[in-house]
Amino acid sequence: MEKKPTVQVTFDGQRLDLPEGENLAAALLAAGIQTFRHTAKTGAPRGPFCMMGACFDCLIEIDGTVRQACMLEVQPGLQIARPSAGGGDHDPE
Protein backbone atom coordinates (compact mmCIF):
# COMPACT_ATOMS: atom_id res chain seq x y z
CA MET A 1 0.00 0.00 0.00
CA GLU A 2 1.38 3.38 -1.00
CA LYS A 3 1.75 5.95 1.78
CA LYS A 4 0.04 9.27 1.01
CA PRO A 5 2.01 12.50 1.28
CA THR A 6 1.26 14.53 4.38
CA VAL A 7 0.16 18.14 4.56
CA GLN A 8 0.30 20.59 7.43
CA VAL A 9 -2.87 21.57 9.31
CA THR A 10 -3.46 23.04 12.75
CA PHE A 11 -5.87 21.86 15.42
CA ASP A 12 -6.43 24.36 18.24
CA GLY A 13 -3.02 25.86 17.44
CA GLN A 14 -1.21 22.49 17.39
CA ARG A 15 0.60 21.76 14.13
CA LEU A 16 -0.21 18.35 12.66
CA ASP A 17 1.01 16.55 9.55
CA LEU A 18 -1.90 14.52 8.18
CA PRO A 19 -2.22 12.39 5.02
CA GLU A 20 -3.65 14.52 2.23
CA GLY A 21 -7.07 13.42 0.99
CA GLU A 22 -7.82 11.15 3.95
CA ASN A 23 -11.00 11.41 5.98
CA LEU A 24 -10.40 14.30 8.41
CA ALA A 25 -11.99 12.63 11.45
CA ALA A 26 -10.00 9.42 10.94
CA ALA A 27 -6.76 11.35 10.38
CA LEU A 28 -7.26 13.41 13.55
CA LEU A 29 -7.95 10.25 15.55
CA ALA A 30 -4.81 8.61 14.13
CA ALA A 31 -2.85 11.73 15.17
CA GLY A 32 -4.03 11.27 18.77
CA ILE A 33 -6.84 13.84 18.86
CA GLN A 34 -9.76 12.17 20.64
CA THR A 35 -11.83 15.12 21.84
CA PHE A 36 -13.18 17.21 18.99
CA ARG A 37 -15.63 19.30 21.03
CA HIS A 38 -17.39 19.56 24.41
CA THR A 39 -21.15 19.58 24.91
CA ALA A 40 -22.79 22.89 25.79
CA LYS A 41 -24.81 21.60 28.73
CA THR A 42 -22.37 19.41 30.64
CA GLY A 43 -19.03 20.04 28.97
CA ALA A 44 -18.69 16.31 28.23
CA PRO A 45 -16.01 15.47 25.63
CA ARG A 46 -17.16 14.30 22.22
CA GLY A 47 -15.34 12.73 19.28
CA PRO A 48 -16.21 10.73 16.19
CA PHE A 49 -18.81 8.04 16.76
CA CYS A 50 -20.69 6.99 13.63
CA MET A 51 -18.16 8.17 10.99
CA MET A 52 -20.97 8.63 8.45
CA GLY A 53 -22.47 12.04 9.23
CA ALA A 54 -25.46 10.95 11.31
CA CYS A 55 -24.48 11.70 14.92
CA PHE A 56 -22.78 15.15 14.88
CA ASP A 57 -20.32 14.17 17.64
CA CYS A 58 -17.32 15.02 15.44
CA LEU A 59 -18.19 18.70 14.95
CA ILE A 60 -15.17 20.96 14.45
CA GLU A 61 -14.78 24.56 13.33
CA ILE A 62 -13.01 25.53 10.11
CA ASP A 63 -12.88 29.18 9.02
CA GLY A 64 -15.65 30.11 11.46
CA THR A 65 -18.01 27.39 10.21
CA VAL A 66 -18.95 24.38 12.30
CA ARG A 67 -18.75 21.21 10.20
CA GLN A 68 -18.65 17.44 10.64
CA ALA A 69 -15.05 16.20 10.46
CA CYS A 70 -16.18 12.79 9.21
CA MET A 71 -17.59 14.40 6.07
CA LEU A 72 -14.38 16.27 5.14
CA GLU A 73 -11.03 15.39 3.60
CA VAL A 74 -7.62 16.54 4.79
CA GLN A 75 -6.44 19.54 2.77
CA PRO A 76 -3.29 21.63 3.13
CA GLY A 77 -3.50 24.55 5.53
CA LEU A 78 -6.72 23.68 7.34
CA GLN A 79 -7.16 25.79 10.47
CA ILE A 80 -9.24 23.53 12.72
CA ALA A 81 -10.59 24.45 16.14
CA ARG A 82 -12.88 23.00 18.73
CA PRO A 83 -16.22 24.81 18.38
CA SER A 84 -17.07 27.32 21.08
CA ALA A 85 -20.33 27.06 23.02
CA GLY A 86 -20.52 23.30 22.82
CA GLY A 87 -20.31 22.79 19.11
CA GLY A 88 -23.42 23.73 17.24
CA ASP A 89 -27.14 23.17 17.13
CA HIS A 90 -27.04 19.36 17.11
CA ASP A 91 -26.21 18.86 20.78
CA PRO A 92 -28.75 16.40 22.25
CA GLU A 93 -27.83 17.17 25.85
UniProtKB/TrEMBL annotation:
Plastid found in the keyword field: no
Gene Ontology MF annotations: iron-sulfur cluster binding; oxidoreductase activity
Pfam families in alphabetical order: Fer2_4 (PF13510)
The entry's keywords: Oxidoreductase
Signal peptide boundaries: none
SUPFAM superfamilies noted in UniProt: 2Fe-2S ferredoxin-like (SSF54292)
Matches recorded under InterPro entries: 2Fe-2S-bd_N, 2Fe-2S_ferredoxin-like_sf
Protein name: (2Fe-2S)-binding protein
